[in-house]
Write a structure and sequence with these properties.
The protein has 416 residues and is of the alpha+beta class. The chain is 19% helix and 31% strand. The protein is built from nine helices and 28 strands. The strands form seven sheets. A six-stranded antiparallel β-sheet has the order 11-12-13-18-15-16. Strands 1-5-6-7-8 form a five-stranded parallel β-sheet. The relative contact order is 0.07.
């Protein structure tokens, strides 16, 4: 029995039914062997979705979709049968304000997602296996995600483990799995045992109340991976703010025996203009343009995660929150603006949280103002105290600003 409380919500999984299910007698069902599924029967789906609603279930996951097609001949022989099945399911979900996730769906059923607005996610990967080589599942997910995203749905990577515990337990690359899951924009589902979650890896994806910070589109394989090449596996996504794009680039060595070229250019990825490149792990930055050769040496399953922030004409660049994977996500930041002398941006957060903001500036800023009040430079590199402050790294030309929130809402920051 699910625990019932005001703040506990659930996602529930389902497949087909036994021929001995009481639903078989109550509603119109097709029985083939010892397997059963509804044939029409909108009343059946209303009962299922009402029961879900009453138990704080917010997402109904219909799994084994491909297996339904192979096990039940009427779905293959009767025109419209599969559509009726999925439509009745979707109509009932709409009636009770539930979301649906598709799992193991063939492309024909994936296409139905364009019709049903209650489909919030579709799994675009095989079953997660933490010890499998990443070349088995990462390309599968990145490429399948293109179809899912084109239908207006976020692709789900499946669960993952956020810890690595020796040769058998956990995942060899837990942060990579969390990073891909977050950049997919879909359900973020760590699957560790109780007490085994790596909090640092998980916190980088969201706000403390669980609001997911995600990009504006799911991460997918770069175009150059679809033609013959000898470089690493490269995937991209972005955050969009008005006319400006912040690009997120993940490079992974999945096939070390194939790699002969250890670099890429932004032009090869379709990016144009000048950027500040930020290395998320090294915490370093530099100026680059579309023709800059971006070199790296990666061992098998090693990866690099970089953010490319637009370099404004006045020499400033807003990089975003350095402790989050999606540094310029649109839940935390909005309305970046620049003029001849400076920049401004709105920051959103909740009471008790601190936003850390990185801005590239060639020189120490003359002023930083939050909601009309100037803030002081701090000698504390960690910016620990719950007071607004900043420090400037003259080597990296990075201004790190701490913006604490005493209450929920937005603050406006300007810098000159």
């Amino acid at each position: 029995m699910l625990f019932r409380s005001d703040d506990a919500v659930f996602s529930a999984h389902n497949r087909w039914y036994s021929d001995k299910s009481p639903y078989v007698q109550k509603y119109n069902f097709i029985v083939e062997g010892n397997n059963a599924m509804p044939n029409g029967s909108p009343e059946f789906w209303e009962e299922i979705m009402k029961n879900a609603k009453d138990r704080n279930i917010v997402t109904y996951e219909q799994d084994w979709l491909k297996t339904h097609i192979s096990r039940f001949t009427f779905l293959r022989s009767e025109i419209g049968a599969a559509h009726t099945w999925l439509k009745n399911m979707a109509d009932a979900a709409d009636k009770f304000d539930l979301g649906i996730e598709y799992c193991m769906a063939p492309p024909s059923l994936m296409m139905q997602m364009a019709e049903f607005k209650c489909i919030i996610s579709a799994r675009a990967s095989g079953d997660y296996a933490p010890r499998w080589p990443k070349r088995y599942d990462v390309p599968y997910f990145m490429q399948s995600s293109m179809l899912v995203a084109s239908l207006g749905v976020w692709p789900f990577k499946d669960t993952f483990q956020s810890t690595s515990r020796g040769p058998i337990n956990g995942d060899r690359c837990p942060e990579l799995m969390a990073l891909i899951s977050n950049l997919s924009g879909s359900i973020f589902a760590p699957g560790d045992e109780i007490g085994m979650i790596n909090k640092d890896i998980i916190k980088a994806a969201s706000r403390k109340d669980g609001l997911l910070y995600k990009p504006n589109r799911p991460i997918t394989a770069a175009d150059l991976t679809y033609i013959k090449n000898s470089t690493y596996y490269i995937c991209t996504t972005e955050s969009t703010h008005g006319q400006f794009l912040w690009h997120y680039v993940l490079t992974i060595n999945l096939w070390p025996f194939r790699v002969k070229k250890h670099s890429y250019t932004l032009r090869e990825l379709g990016f144009k203009g000048s950027f500040i490149e930020y290395d998320w792990h090294l915490k370093t930055c530099r100026k680059v343009n579309e023709n800059t050769e971006i070199s790296q040496k990666l061992k098998e399953e090693q990866y690099k995660y970089r953010i490319y922030s637009p370099l404004f004409k006045n020499g400033f660049s807003i990089l975003g929150d350095p402790i989050k994977y999606v540094m310029m996500n649109d839940k935390e930041f909005s309305n970046p603006v620049y003029d001849q002398s400076g920049i401004s941006i709105e920051i959103n957060n909740i009471a008790g949280e601190c936003t850390h903001l990185l801005i590239y500036s060639e020189n120490l800023p003359s002023s930083i103002i939050i909601d009309g009040l100037g803030i002081q430079e701090s000698n504390d590199n960690d910016l620990v105290d719950f007071e607004p402050s900043f420090n400037y790294n003259a080597v990296n030309h990075l201004v790190r600003i701490k913006i604490p929130f005493e209450k929920d809402g937005a603050k406006k920051l300007s810098m000159h």
